[in-house]
Write a structure and sequence with these properties.
single chain; 8-stranded parallel beta sheet; 3-stranded antiparallel beta sheet; 15 helices
């Protein structure tokens, strides 16, 4: 534990980095996967379970929490940590992505964005300063700048406009954040699929001397190879002694390949969203438990898993639950998926520490490619 926010880069193996973020609420082992708790809950999971899977930090969402229950109410109730019974670090995203993607009606200008709530149609204004204020009311440990995220594909001029606006907003967020001992504000690199814009954005954010840097606006419609090229362009420009966070990513394959290029932190709704729809992630790859081949298969998803959902429940039972739309099916598969993601991160960290990340990468890819067990 420490009273300040610190990042310690312990060692590297090729492009992969092993590190540790320390802050008053706890330590985040990197590379880290951060489960998404959009409205103060990681869907279909108890937070005690989330912690037991190996999660050091979870996410909350500024847009959703400002609409309900409301940031001021959360503050009156003692902050988000107390409200949801999670005493470990919380990162809140700025709300910018949700404003752009969920709001049916919005008006964007230099000051911020005015939008209608997707919940009840009420009118709200989100400026860089208000975004940081809300995140402060929530009590989050890592706060993200407000940015404009452009869906790809898009015209280069539109990408450039949004990137420049996001840079100006980053500076305003830094001023609004001020000095908050033990907490951090991260900037967000934008620039779409344009390498020169990514470099300009990263250089501009670096000048602000922030405590961490995120890469945003990827995994929003572009192919994986484009995402990886943008990382290869962007990461050398960012400080090597600060954490690097790839927002909204992704599949286990995305994570493995992004770690190889130097990313330290990830978040994605995929493990829980997929679990609620009958898709399991395992060391043998993806398994669609809805498929009829599992209906009379009494074997577990993975007999060697440390997770009870993967080890102790039969595929036949999981198949029955999911096909019957029973909530327990989604709960068990979400548990399995989050456990698998955390086991993957644990394996990555151990491999980097031992200087064998390339071998781990190859072995993991080979196991995925080999596929699931033969049907009974």
């Amino acid at each position: 534990m420490t009273e300040t926010f610190q990042f310690n880069l312990k060692t590297t193996d090729g492009g992969a980095r092993l590190g540790e973020v320390t802050m008053p609420r706890g330590t985040i082992r990197t590379p880290a996967f951060m489960p998404v708790g959009t409205v103060g809950t990681v869907k279909a999971m108890y937070l005690d379970q989330v912690r037991e899977t190996g999660a050091d930090i979870i996410l909350g969402n500024t847009y959703h929490l400002m609409l309900r229950p409301g940031a001021e109410r959360v503050a009156r109730l003692g902050g988000l940590h107390k409200l949801i019974r999670w005493e470990h670090p919380i990162l809140t995203d700025s709300g910018g992505f949700q404003v752009m993607s969920l709001s049916g009606l919005r008006k964007l200008d230099e000051q911020g964005v005015t939008f209608k709530s997707h919940v009840d149609g009420s009118l709200h204004h989100m400026s860089p300063e208000r975004s940081i204020e809300i995140q402060g009311l929530l009590g989050s440990d890592i706060q993200m700048q407000l940015d404009e995220c452009v869906a790809l594909p898009a015209e280069p001029k539109e990408i450039e406009r949004a990137m420049e606006l996001s840079l100006r907003w980053a500076e305003r967020c830094r001023v609004a954040f001020g000095e908050q001992p033990g907490k951090a504000m991260f900037g967000i690199v934008q620039g779409g699929d344009q390498p020169d814009l990514r470099v300009r954005s990263a250089e501009g954010l670096r000048q602000l001397d922030l405590k961490g840097y995120a890469v945003g606006g990827l995994a929003v419609g572009e192919p994986q190879d484009v995402m990886l090229r943008m990382l290869e362009t962007t990461l050398p420009v960012l400080p090597s002694d600060k954490p690097r966070y790839l927002m909204g990513v992704g599949t286990p394959d995305d994570i493995l390949k992004s770690v190889a290029r130097g990313i330290d932190m990830f978040d994605c709704v995929m493990p829980t969203r997929s679990g609620r729809h009958g898709l399991a992630f395992t060391r043998r790859g993806r398994i669609n438990i809805r498929n009829a081949r599992h209906a009379e298969d009494m074997r577990p998803l993975d007999e060697d898993s440390s997770c009870p959902a993967a080890r102790d429940y039969s595929r036949a039972y999981l198949h029955h639950l999911v096909r019957s739309d029973e909530a327990l099916g989604g709960m068990l598969l979400s548990w399995n998926n989050l456990s698998y993601y955390q086991d993957l991160m644990k394996g990555i960290r151990a491999a980097i520490a031992e200087g064998r990340f390339a071998d781990f990468y190859a072995e993991t890819q080979e196991a995925w490619a080999k596929g699931d067990l033969e049907p009974v």
